[in-house]
Design brief:
This protein has 210 residues and is an alpha+beta fold. 48% of the residues lie in helices and 21% in strands. InterPro entries: SatD (IPR032580).
């Protein structure tokens, strides 16, 4: 049976999608998916499945993390996305209809359910991401680090969150400030006061993981 060995499956779901403008969210989700697929070559492209759920398959955990964060950045101000990442094998049941199975998908489903359960617990309300990885290269530090990133992003003001997006996009301070309609000094203050550069360094390291 065809499939992808030792890969990472990404399962995402729009948080509280029933309470939002579904048409606007869906259009934004499709545009975000296109941006993610252009930025990171997948084993199986990120796509919408049922409702506002999305799925994709990646060769490395780093690629899956990069796509997860890019998806959230693209939907900033429109919708939040909860993601589960599962490391393992993917089996292709029906390539024509996009039907897949396998341990990576089981773990991705379990991970997204874990992220949702954690978000209901005091002290973990900001949880949006979880990882369950059984590959030989799995790193036990990644799952808690993803929750740290969730918490840091949730604590940002809307303006600082946008400055984070600009920083991750590689924009220089002057360009980011112009896009934000603030002075370069004000944008630098957002970056420095919230420790966005160390956070970006952490994310960069995670996106390099096998």
């Amino acid at each position: 049976m065809k499939g992808f060995p030792e890969c990472v499956a990404l399962l995402g779901d729009v948080v509280r999608s029933r309470n939002s403008d579904r048409s606007r969210v869906h259009d934004a989700l499709l545009a975000a998916i296109d941006a993610c697929n252009d930025a990171q070559p997948p084993l199986d492209p990120l796509r919408v499945t049922v409702g506002d759920e999305v799925q994709g398959v990646y060769a490395t955990l780093g690629q899956a993390v990069a796509v997860m964060l890019r998806l959230r950045d693209e939907l900033l101000g429109i919708a939040e996305v909860r993601c589960g990442l599962g490391g393992g094998d993917v089996r292709i049941i029906d390539a024509k209809r996009g039907i897949q199975d396998g341990p990576a998908w089981w773990r991705a489903r379990e991970a997204i359910e874990r992220a949702e359960a954690l978000s209901r617990q005091p002290g973990n309300r900001t949880s949006r991401t979880a990882l369950i990885d059984a590959r030989a290269v799995a790193n036990p530090l990644v799952d808690p680090l993803l929750r740290v990133i969730d918490a840091k992003l949730a604590a940002l003001s809307p303006g600082s969150r946008r400055s984070w997006v600009h920083l991750r996009a590689g924009l220089d301070n002057a360009t980011a400030a112009k896009l934000e309609g603030v002075t370069p000094s004000a944008n630098s203050q957002r970056v420095n006061d919230h420790g966005l550069r160390p956070l970006a360094a952490l994310v960069e390291a995670l996106t390099e993981l096998p």
